[in-house]
Specification:
Elements: E1 14-18, H1 22-33, E2 37-42, H2 47-50, E3 55-59, E4 72-75, H3 80-92, E5 97-99, E6 112-116, E7 119-123, H4 130-141, H5 148-165, H6 169-181, H7 183-189, H8 193-205, H9 207-210, E8 214-219, H10 230-236, E9 241-244, H11 250-253, E10 261-264, E11 267-268, E12 271-272, H12 276-288, E13 292-297, H13 307-316, E14 321-324, H14 329-336, E15 350-354, H15 366-369, E16 375-379, H16 385-394, E17 402-407, E18 415-420, H17 424-431, E19 437-441, H18 448-451
Parallel strand pairs: 1-2, 1-4, 2-3, 4-5, 8-13, 8-14, 9-10, 9-13, 15-16
Antiparallel strand pairs: 6-7, 11-12, 16-19, 17-18, 17-19
Helix pairs in contact: 5-6, 7-8, 12-13
């Protein structure tokens, strides 16, 4: 972050604006709305500013003495030398100073503001693009109705009673999320605060409901954060704890609520942080502690993700859960690699299999996998690539059948290596692709040269 976002209380405090034009008038109005005492210094004034109620106008050129007693300063003149003087003198006195449209001279920036008092939303680009921040504010104007101010005031009225009743901060946050996402909020927004108050009191009396934990089994997709679903994003921001695996990319983990507990349970070949049974028990324990637990899994939790085993355990223990599908690696990675999984000239069917080696072998239905005019997608097959290719040839596929390895698909580290069943093991030996990888077998691989569109910028 270039600037620390804060909200400053200036009620009843002296704030100085240097400049007498329209920009200075707008800044003075913002300060007045925040309850500040506003003094404006300029050799001459815009008539609208001179007549602005509540503003003290001082007709003079700026001098250091004008800073005395000021809590905050805004320089809004058209003369950069004056603005620089204001900035240097204010910063020497440790007074926060903003110079309009000149980030280099600022110790703080004025954001674009969405006012739903007491709810406030501020947007800033650190001075890089004020127009962009105002555009974003405009987009949210329609998403956050004016009567949200009523909802914020309602919450403020019951803040202390709820704090006394629900003493655990984590449970208190869950309580308020239930209020804001449920019928109570709808009643307040509709103007029926009496009914909302009755329902809130009933929620406070139901202590067992407040302490109830839940698990969200969420598919994180193949790696690109843009492929997350809206529902996944919403639950990621609600969770008290996140349990995530090796296939969830760092940018996606960074999108989880900042203060959520993070627990890594990644599994690589021959290197398991926790075994599956221990992961199941962990989810149960966290939920029984009253936490909202986000189980974040790469791809889709029900496609080679062992999500079914996890929710079986949750159901047996009476733990409430939700399942959010994700874009599975086969779909997302193939798309970003420019390889359609089906195509009427090449494949009318598609099979997903896991190529994980057990006791040095792959226990797969080779006859089914070796049928012509189909696509085979192999998860976790890199270590057994040589065996995979040999078995497919042995069971009838031509050794010239196209095959591709996609490394870390949909991410900036994506890399695609192509060959045939006969040549790819040797190519992979030279190129040394890094897990996670996906293997795609079939004629559709030949379309990559025509359909490749994703050219990631390397980090």
């Amino acid at each position: 972050m270039d600037f620390l976002p804060i909200f400053l209380n200036v009620k009843g405090k002296l704030c100085l604006v240097v400049g007498g034009g329209e920009v200075a008038r707008r800044k003075a109005c913002v300060l007045l709305e925040a309850g500040a005492r506003v003094r404006v210094v300029a050799p001459e004034f815009n008539p609208d500013l001179a007549g602005q109620q509540g503003v003290e106008c001082v007709v003079a050129r700026f001098e250091a003495r004008h800073l005395e007693g000021a809590t905050l300063v805004i320089a809004a003149t058209s003369d950069r030398s004056v603005n620089r003087q204001v900035s240097e003198l204010a910063q020497a006195r440790n007074i926060p100073v903003n110079v309009v449209d000149d980030p280099e001279l600022c110790s703080f920036v004025m954001p674009a503001i969405l006012d739903r008092s007491p709810l406030m939303v501020a947007f800033s680009s650190g001075g890089a693009s004020p127009v962009l921040t105002r555009m974003l504010r405009g987009k949210l104007e329609t998403s956050i109705p004016q009567n949200y101010s009523r909802l914020a005031a309602f919450a403020e009225r019951f803040r202390e009673p709820v704090k006394r009743r629900v003493t655990d901060p984590a449970k208190r946050r869950i309580f308020w999320e239930n209020v804001f996402e449920g019928v109570i909020a709808e009643k307040v927004l509709a103007g029926d605060e009496a009914a909302a108050e009755t329902m809130l009191q009933q929620m406070l009396a139901d202590e067992d409901n407040i302490q109830r934990g839940e698990v969200y089994l969420v598919g994180a997709g193949p790696g690109d954060p843009d492929l997350l679903t809206f529902r996944a994003l919403r639950l990621m921001q609600k969770a008290d704890a996140v349990v995530y695996d090796n296939l969830v990319s760092d940018p996606i983990v960074d999108m989880v609520r900042r203060d959520a507990q993070r627990i890594f349970v990644g599994k690589k070949r021959a290197d398991h942080t926790l075994c599956q049974e221990e992961i199941n028990e962990l989810l149960v324990r966290l939920a029984k502690e009253g936490k909202r637990v986000l189980r974040l899994k790469g791809g889709d939790p029900f496609i080679f993700g062992r999500g079914g085993e996890e929710i079986e355990t949750l159901a047996a223990q009476g733990i409430p859960f939700q399942v959010v599908p994700g874009i599975t690696a086969a779909s997302g990675v193939a798309s970003y690699a420019g390889i359609p999984l089906t195509h009427r000239d090449h494949a009318q069917s598609c099979m997903f299999v896991t190529g994980h080696l057990k006791d040095g072998t792959m226990n797969l239905d080779w006859d089914a996998l070796s049928r012509p005019r189909q696509t085979v997608v192999v998860y976790m097959g890199l270590h057994g690539l040589g065996m995979l290719c040999a078995k497919l040839i042995e069971h009838g596929l031509p050794d010239s059948t196209p095959i591709a390895i996609v490394q870390q698909g949909t991410t900036p580290n994506q890399r695609v290596i192509t060959g045939t069943l006969a040549t790819l093991p040797g190519i992979a030996e030279r190129e040394q692709p890094q897990a996670p990888t996906l293997i795609i077998v079939g004629g559709v691989v030949t379309l990559r040269d025509k359909l490749d569109w994703f050219h990631p910028q390397k980090p």
